[in-house]
Amino acid sequence: MAVTLSESAAKHVANFLARRGKGVGVRLGVKTSGCSGMAYKLEYADEADAADVVFESHGVKVLVDPKSLPYIDGTELDFVREGLNEGFKFNNPNVKDQCGCGESFNV
Known about the structure:
This protein is of the alpha/beta class and 107 residues long. It has helices at residues 7-20, 69-72, and strands at residues 4-5, 25-33, 37-45, 53-57, 60-64, 76-82, 85-91, 97-98, 105-106.
């Protein structure tokens, strides 16, 4: 089981945490939402919870709650720039279908 960051995502998270002046990494999970059933939750984590599963990728910690892990196991979080837009992209091998807008998915 693993959740990883691309090199560009790791750099983006590390730079943000450095500017912020606190935080141990990024927390990734899922919640019930959207037209396809599930949506990603992504936030900066100031500390790890006791139940978190912690992965490290390119020197940055990725914290995942155990209930979310089966849905995102194998996921790579990337940070991409496309034209004037930039943001995180979830490369999740478990996704069977997603809504047209890309906000939600199912496995």
